[in-house]
Fold these 4 entries.
Entry 1:
Amino acid sequence: MKKAEDAGHIKTFNRSSKISCGTPVQYLKGVGPARAGLLSRLGINTIEDILYYFPWRYEDRKNLKKICALLLGEAETVSGEVVSAEVVTTPRKRMKIFELGVSDGTGHLKCKWFNQPFLKRYFKEGEKVILSGVVKGSLYGTSLEMENPDFEILGKEDGLIHTSRIVPVYKATEGISPKQLRTLMYSTINSSQHLIEDYIPEDILKRNDLKPLLWSVKETHFPEEFSDIIALNRMKSPGHRRLVFDEFFLLELGLALMKKKETLEKGISFKDGGALINKFLQDIPFKLTGAQERVIREIKSDMLRPLPMNRLIHGDVGCGKTVVAVISMLIAVESGYQACLMAPTELLAEQHFINIHKMIERIGLQVVLLTSSSKGRPLDDISQGAAHIIIGTHAIIQESVKFKNLGLAIIDEQHKFGVVQRANIRRKGFNPDILIMTATPIPRTLALTLYGDLDISIIDELPGGRKPIVTKVFFSSQKESIHALIKEELSKGRQAYVVYPLIEESEKLDLKSAIEGFEAFKRIYHDRRIGLVHGRMPHDEREAVMSKFKSGDIDMLIATTVIEVGIDVPNASLMLIVHAERFGLAQLHQLRGRIGRGGYDSYCLLMAYPPFSEEAKRRLKAMESTGDGFKIAEEDLSIRGHGDFFGTRQSGIPDLNVANIIRDIDILEISRKEAFALADADPEMKEYPLLKEKLQRKWTGRLELIKS
């Protein structure tokens, strides 16, 4: 097989040029400011971006066919001689069509381009051309046709790019076509291949049988053989494997260096007290689970060391993370430090504040709520140290918020913040300990990717007395069965949730609204006490309704997803989720976690409105088949893909453009092992200047990893 690195169609760049990886793409020949604006929509802003913008699929246009052998409806590639080239105008629509006639001696092919009369000047009778497109029959069945085929005129271009080869197909955007992108890619590799330098240590490449980087980039853009296209479309070629390894390696090396940097820094060594914790444990009306006790021991061990703690707690819905968080905060407070908990929304921060305040009000500590609207007294109490525990939103990391001595920062629902926010909150104290919580069980593969710099604790045990929740999908035609189940549970003295996706009726989406549902359920259950709660209600009004539901003064709560977290009503045994097909899998599981907390048989009814997508069917089937949050998370990752699961752009980690943590888990594990070993051996990257430079570009704007 002819190797791509020997291919003569890629020229050598003039090394006197000042172009670098960071050079804006507009300075490439044939780009300019206008086209650079179009490329930026694709995430292409620099020369390096375009070199690493790879095809999403490939077409085999290498096998030329005779015109007489072309098959209708098939994508074919053919070569022939131009016999006619003319522009015709349709009589009614006044549309100009460029028609090209081609013959190869075995037959005649007519090609049409609509509203592109300028193409006529490119073709001359007698020239040889290659065309690729879908074959169609003519109106009267007398000849074969192609509409808007890709073409190349032999002898006019240096090498074949669009036909008579394995052709890469790039995702394009309005204003720039896949063909134009292909031409740009070809010329960029032509002129800028000297920028593609191997930065990964040679011993790592040899140990893992990885191809050279330049060869891998060129082969992935323009493969040479048919076997290569099969491998690339399955993402299994040697070149693709090298590119996947590089993405994972740079990601994991950044995380490894973060972890190494933090272990080299001094932190707070908290006291091994326990008086506040003992008081707290005496007040709560339940016993900790074995998993909670194990995780508390792991956290306490971290906090006693003079190093900054960086630990993630994750577990299933209702496993008791909040209690673990409170005990961690009490360790900090008893040592004379402040503790804070940062939540992604005001509603969740309010729920945490109410729950935690009730848990520790007898101990005599001051708990304050801090949101973007907080002014005056709360800020003074925080800066003067009168506030022991601060619960808030991202307002906690605002410049105006000053802590007297922050010792522990807890971040809830980490995936809605990210590594940058973690760095910002650390600056609020002298290297405070960081504890991260998530109520979304994290698949092992994603935990390795997003949280590679953290120690991980898993609460894998639910409080005693929990029974499995029976989950079943219903359709709108089965409303009578749904109401029968609701009435049966209410007759037992139980309570029920009804969850809607919207507050009011939407004109764009035909969804049932919470407000309309509230009125409907009042009519159907006129002898029951019905409540309504949603995110637009004033805080005091919302809390009053929730308080009545908790105390049993409301039988049925009509709600939006505001009840997704923070609500604990042991007597609630049934939840109806309306338009369940519109909810994400993780959110459905979170909502289901609001019931089944009182030891009663519990039921989650998923009311779906067909037609819905295959993804929605998979989500509903997963909910019916398992109550295991970790299995739910794996399925969610499989359905949504790694890029969308937590939103890597928001999380602060570099984007994954080639690698896929589901498909490429084996390469992820190898790259992680190599990255952490290198970080241990040379945390300042003194021996690897090229790798250091590449790493800094990859993580630019996200976090300072290495001191220059």
Entry 2:
Amino acid sequence: MRPHLLLAALFLGSAAAVAAPGTTLYAHGHVYTGNPASPWAEAVAVEGATIVAVGSDAALGKYRSRGRTVDLKGRTVIPGLVDAHLHLLFGALTLDGLNLSTPERSLTPNEPEAFVAALAAYARQHPEKRVLIARADFSTAEPNAPDRALLDRAVPDRPLVVHNASEHAVWVNTKALELAGITEAPLDSPAAEKGVFRNASGRPSGMLLEGAQDRVHSAVLNLLGTEEKLELVRRATRYLNSFGITSVVNATGNLAEIELYGTLRDRGELTVRTRTAFGAVSVPHRLTPEFLADLETARTRYHDDWVAANLVKFFADGSTGFIPPLVYRPAEYRALVEELDRRGFQLMTHAQRGDSVHMILDAYENAIAKNGPRERRLRIEHSFLISDEDIGRYARLNVIAGIQPAFCCSELGTGYDAKDPTVSDRWRTLLDRGVTLALSSDWPCMWPPDPYLNIQQAVTRQAWKSPDTAVIDAGVFDGAGNGGAKPLAGQYYGQSEAITVREAIDGYTRGAAFAAYAEKLVGTLEVGKAADLVVLSQDIFAVPAERIGATKALLTVVGGRTVYEAALH
């Protein structure tokens, strides 16, 4: 989490809904355009919010007299990064809260006294907060999952919600259970109830998995006023800008959340382009009249360069326990996919299990057959485990693979069974079959949402392990940089599935833009496209692979406006 960069950033105005003034020439650079026909340049000229020329310093010299010139001094420039899968509001809440799972250290309930002390100190420091949010690593499998009693010791008088680093579980105190209305009585939704840990008397333990946690999320958001939520999002988008991120696909959301981004756009305060999916973590969709009306309202009202919808997110499985739990029966999922596809929505589905991937491909193939050909850009998120049979179907059905390289590689890759010989994270094979890769952080599951560590991991596939979380038996991500994980010297996982630096950057730009139906606007530096670009601290194409993760954004431009700047000397 590089707070020194965040504090040092100089934000020079908002990007959205305001035309950037004048002409700017970015000259004397090492510019990777991402355009396969002309991948390299020295200079980029911008008028207002749009790129008007890309080429050599000599060819673009005429733009010097038309406005200001930024001397790049040979630094590397790439297109603005498109994070193809993150959770913006979750990230905003965590950024504002207490993060106990950072790249440097993971403080877990296995150190109960230190854990309680950290939470109690945070509560004392923030008497103004009506609800306290934290993030930590903890077990999500009984009988070793922690109980609310520990949190009640830390904060007995206010709701406390501790997000699991995976964002598929929350651990809450008694006040938070009361806020969410979770009592000894079973929840009205069987799908949610199965995620509530209870004792033999029906008392909730404070551990809520998968779909059950949505009760707490909704209660917390209802407690916050609109201006509070807008400020959280403002801070989060500027934080993303500090990494060179200029566009995102927000992989969970609803109409109310999209309206927040619309409000910021209208105020000229939105500094990332957003495309938001309807869906909540592991909550099965029900095609109620209200849900369908919200979907239609969102895609009718929000379809511009800054706020877009028309996307539905499914969860085929979860991310807790020893093996991710299933969310749908195949026939139920297939029917939902067929109907939403018939209505013209783009679909994306979370899948961590190989059998989930197979079920998704079956449903996608059925929808194509039933509803006829069109450009769908169907997506499968994570795509950890894919059989040889299903690899071919990704290409044949034109399914986009949404991947997060930093989740690879623990000692088992991202498999769940040490006896399963399937190699996970088959990025090279997918690319070689012609499949589009869309790279992302899944922030706040990855912390921070560092694209350069993701790119490093895509290239190296180095094995990582966290000594802090080694004793936790389920529900832990110990991939690159997560939860105190350290690289295991000389150990790599399935290096034949690694991709190149250029391919990884393409996945974070051109591929991710394509996955968001935004390739005509962003993803490459070409004449007529939006002036979204990033100046880097080092030549990401030339440094040793193990040092790629040290790259920093020095300058982030969105729509011709500088939204983040560090020293350029």
Entry 3:
Amino acid sequence: MTTPLPAADPLTAARAALARDDLAVAGTILRERLRADRDDPAALDGWAECGLRQGRLDAACWALARIAHRRPEDGAALDRLGQACLQARDTRAALAAFSAAQALDPRDALACNGIGLCHLLDDQPAAALEPLARAAAADPRDASILVNGAQARQRAGDLPGAVVWIERAAKLAPKATTLVHASLLREAGDCARAWTLLGLLGAEERAQPQVQLEAVRCLRELGRVDAALDLLAGFDRQWPQTADFHEQMGHCLAAPEQAAQRHAHWCHAVELLFGQRRLRRARSLLEHLLGQAPHLARGWLLRGMLELAVADDAQAEAALRQALACDGGLLGARWRLASLLEQGNRIEPARAVLAQTPTPPTPDAVASDDDCTQWHLVDCRLALREGRPEAALAIAAALMQHPLDEPSRLRLQFERGRALDRLDRVAEAMAAFAAGNAWARQAWQRQNPGPNPFLAEVDACLAHARHGGLDRWPALAPSAPDGEPDPIFVVGFPRSGTTLVEQALAGNSHLQVLMEAATAVRMRDIVAAMPDGYPQAIGALDEFDRRYLRTAYFDAVAGACTRDRQRLLVDKMPLQMTRAALIARVFPRARWVFLARHPADACLSCFMQNFAPNPAMANFHTLADTVQLYVRTMALWELYRERLGLVVHTVHYHRLVTDFDGQMAALCAFLGVPVEADQARFAERARSGRRIATPSYEQVSQPLHRGAIDRWQRYRTWLEPYLPRLQPFIDRYAG
């Protein structure tokens, strides 16, 4: 009788799967192994390898960080962690890992090079020089270190030093360094030698776009502009509509009589760079353009658009005003400035900007000019803000006679709906909101086919909680491991008053309010990359994971604001309550402020908003979907609140509106801070010009009023089918 062979060792099988690049099989084996022992170094190593090969960098970084935590004296493990973090563009974590490795071995070339790269990525070339010098001394035969050192010197302004370093690299790897070598020689003024170097490349290498662009730069600086233009003509045929092409064309058209063409090419290059989110490069080119043409209105318009993209409203306003000073008829600058002022609740200045249009565009111009359309849309919005809904409807009616693109049609229907609502023409208002939402739904589903991921996440969390997922958590130490107090989380279903409370709390000098940053999303993504996935892995989180996630959270905070540790952090994100289990595991001493509003009012208000598209807001395109999300979200919140013993202070919207001082006093007592007079001046602050990035920016600029309480009664006909599902929550939150 033959004895059966023993089953293959799982880790051996996983390694074999990795060797044949069968990542799905390897991942399945490693997942099961790590569920049994999440500190198995071989399994963690394999999980990291799978993550790196599949581009799941959160998985790789978590596994390598766990290995490094278990083996703090292992410099190689720290180096691998640093490299993975660099791939993920997490320079803070990468720098910490490389610095720890370098502390173990000052001659660790990989660590020193990694430290230098972190500084380069953080735009600190001077700080990169010393670690890269140490890396080169430790491994003088590594050409990549020398290339990094050359680039650091170039960006630090030391071109002669950069050339010395790149020539050392070229001796080790001449072909691999040719392009950088030629570029540095050209910048140092040796264009002839740079051109010669490029000529040594093979035909296939010379055909690469970056090589051709460098050849254009060399030819231009050698005075061979016609040859450069010939190269660019071929470049445009092969890679049309690229920012690099238009930038170089502008440089080649250097004659005074070619200024208009030159500036047009540079402006187009900037627009293309915007589309690619290459904002630093766009800023550099704009500065060059405006330095040459300080009276170019289009250049200032682009500068204003750049500042809007990075949310620098003051600089955006200044640039747009400068554009209009150069050309008062530039509609693109005029409607953007008026819109910026309106979003900052500066209604009279916004109207003044539109009123100063030298030749106001007629509706007939809409079909051929998007700037005309946007001008009229801002005019419509301002008419509403000025209390002139009939005028807003007239503007909308004129616009609807012309073909509009989808975003404009969508926005117009929401503006019509608001105007009709204010005139109490509720049936027409609902029809307008339904039309706007239908277009929004189509646009979303076209770009995001399949089930809604946010709703799927809520359902997964509900199933997890209902089937005992909250009952088996091992205890963690209650103290904050990093010295940071646990934050205060302001949550609630959207349109329930969270922005009003946020604005009031922002007036308290003891609090620092963070407005709708994706802090818990970052933690969710990391947990989803763990072997158990999200939300199942929440119960398996240990003290290492907690520290890891807290660090990720506060890194996300630092990316959104300059943290003031003298003040308590208030994190306002309405639907963050759906991730309360994860937050409670990471921040067991967190306090929660929950905003409750009549469910029918909250759902109706969400349906009536033209939200920026994302997976959560995509659930508001129909009343049925809105109610579905409300019921599931609130069911999950109530499960979390009861099972996890969350410390919650509930603020009822209708009480906040009718007794603001009393509600603020109770809330501040809960938070342990004194009430301050500036908290009541939220409307005044909202009119100070700073944009509030939520649809509530208009409401919080006004004195408190009862107009939004029981608004749903006017729309009862449309809400009636959903009231039975909402009734349990009406009983709890409408009183």
Entry 4:
Amino acid sequence: MTLRVSTQMMYTQSTNYINNKLASLTDLNEQASSQKRINKPSDDAVGSATVLNLRSTLTSYDQYKENVATAQGWLSTSDATLTQVSTLLTRAKELAQEAATGSQSAENRKQISYEMRQIYEQLIALANTEYQGKSIYGGQKTDKNAFSECLWMTSNDASLSTSNSFRIEGNSDTTVLVQFVNSGASTGSSALMSACDVRYSIDGGKTFRDGSVTTNAAGEIVVSMPESGTSITFARDTQVKVNSQTNTNDTNGTWMWIRPSAVYNGDDSDDTGTTVSSSGLGTNLLGATARGSFSTNAIVRIDNKTAVTMGQQIEYSYSLDGGSTWVTGNTVAADSTSNATTLNLAAGGLLTLASNGSNVLQPGAQFLIKPNTAGVNLQISASESLQVNDVGKDIFGGIYQDPSKVLGNGGNRLTLASSNATAVFNSSSSIYTSNGGTPTKNLFETVGNLVAFLETNNQQGVSQSLDSLKLCQTQVTTALASVGGRENRASTTKTILTNLTDSVTSQLSSVEDVDLTRLLTQLSQQETAYQAVLKSSSMIMQMSLMNYI
């Protein structure tokens, strides 16, 4: 059977051949331009999926490297800061050793106190160091200074500080030395503070002025020292030991040194527990406590359609990502004998709800669980994070108490109820006793006491402060070692991430990049083929029956 080849068929076939070769040449030109073998999913479907996965991995590595760089910035700043703190403490020890010798006069110690005041101010500034506008020693409270200056009180009478709450108001650039006298009591005998007269000195004990002891509307005892610009308030039943009315150096009575210290404004990680807040109808009449393992905030929601009592079946959901996703379908079996219930959350966390006036749970009631933490952590790999900050009170000490237990706080005023609160650095750490007190690692309390004892020519107090300075410097050195260890870890992680990035980049190149030698060969072949098709097509298309008629 003979098939007639028409002119139209020849034109169509020639056009197809030209287009096919041109398309192949265009694809090769695109690869030559982009240097990529895969430019669209149709080039290699499996390879495209591999490329996307590898690029996603590279993106995560880039983010980890940015986090490592940020961590190195934080830690490097802390390293430099603590090194300066250690240098200042070395100088403070030199000054304390000099002032503790018996050959120094009151004037010599006063001169040394000027430099110690400056060291104290420098330490405050260093403790408030920031990196990119964020405090590095305030725990997670990075938006404000970790420490603020305050006045605090040291006494040779341990019971005065440890058994009574007190607050100090006002401001003074020098140590205020305070004594109590009572005409009706013998020297050293105990008496109610409200029955005593007070005298104070603002020149290191050279001269004394009369103060006043009054009772305010709340029944508290207010000790006022007008020319010092300060006052101190005690509980109404506070007792002191009476000083001699004629001997201002009487060591039998109660003395007070009102001197500088610092309040820690950050948060801590001492308590591994949690706090629970609630919202919804009736939740104020419920007691809610959390225990167990909580690594992040958790929200618990009651899902019952109607109000239920603790003894009925309770339906609830919880979220560990701020409410973006919820784990639903959780229930607690009915127990008619109980007016409390425990809800199980992920990773062993438990929320216990109990009656505090009502045992009814309303639909939609929510409970927010917040774990107590102070660390600022950055993710430096898929499986590890690195803490970049430090808790300032653990390094510098100062005056600190759980904010929920502070009775009053503001400016140069802080109330610390030592007798009924769990203060981390309570007032007992600042006690100076005539027979020598226990050294403390509380840096700001130590330096504050040292300033006070230098300004009041107290050689024995200076000696005690010297022992504390040694412990403080060890504390700072330990913190410095911790920072250095984390710096090394960040540096090692950076090297690992660089190596991983190079490896994945190599894998990506092997899948995605074009083989240039092979590409040039293919381009030459396709160019020759295209030219051949064009030439043959032009020859065929010139041939027609019309040429032979």
